[in-house]
Amino acid sequence: MTYRDLRYLRIDVEDLDAAQAFAADVFALMPVERDETRATFRSDARNYALCCARGEGNAVALTVARPEDLDALADRLTAAGYSTTRLSPQACVARQVKQALAVTAPNGVTVELVWRPLTSGWPYHGGRDAGICDFAAVSLCCRDIAANEAFWVKGLGLRVSDYAGDAVFLALDEAHHRIALYPSDRDGLLGASWDVATRDHIMRNWYHFQKLQLPVVAGPGRQPTSGASFVTTRGPGGLLFSYIHGMEKGPQIEARGPRQFADTARSHCAWGSSSTQPEFQGRIEG
User: Rounded to whole angstroms, how far apart are CA atoms 235 and 262?
Assistant: First the structure.
């Protein structure tokens, strides 16, 4: 299956005002629309990359190229034992897409497969120069890592780029990964990453977190698997928000096949920055 992009992330929040304050004022995403239950934010040419909503559940969206792809995915997922739902016209309008298909991953996160999502003709402008230029990746917590890998690979057709211990990095285009699965004692969303223009922006945003006395959950560091430099803080609903730069891209990733990295903290940060997040600590010391 060929996908056009990782389209958007929807996170379920209790306090919409606090979520908007973090996304716009702290992380420097651009507010787009807001009503009593939803707030959307831009980071690039998409009309939105992040939606904070009350009572709608967590979801990750992938864009397909043709409407026939939705039919093909419905057949493929059904054959693999997963139940799918066509979203109503009203639900598609709310998501700013023409058509959509929804399926629930084994870890409980909804995956929305969308066709013709709305693109903005206006430049992105954040509240400060955080350097954001693209929506990069989503990380998921998985109690049953094998079941979730099977869902994304056999059900949705993504490719495994690398393993770090039992963590799985999944590609849908030429980027090293767009989805990362982490073994965990819980299920659900773990975090999301946004590309920034330079490594210098990683350090600037690190200083920004320190100035605001925000927790630096991971980094500054470099991911050995993808090559991306990163710094991570905690946002709405406990979700990890990361700035990254320099993720490996290109056909050589698929050509060389998945690599196995050790189940250690060093496989999640080559610079040796400590992390309080259990999913990034590995199970083997060293």
Answer: 29
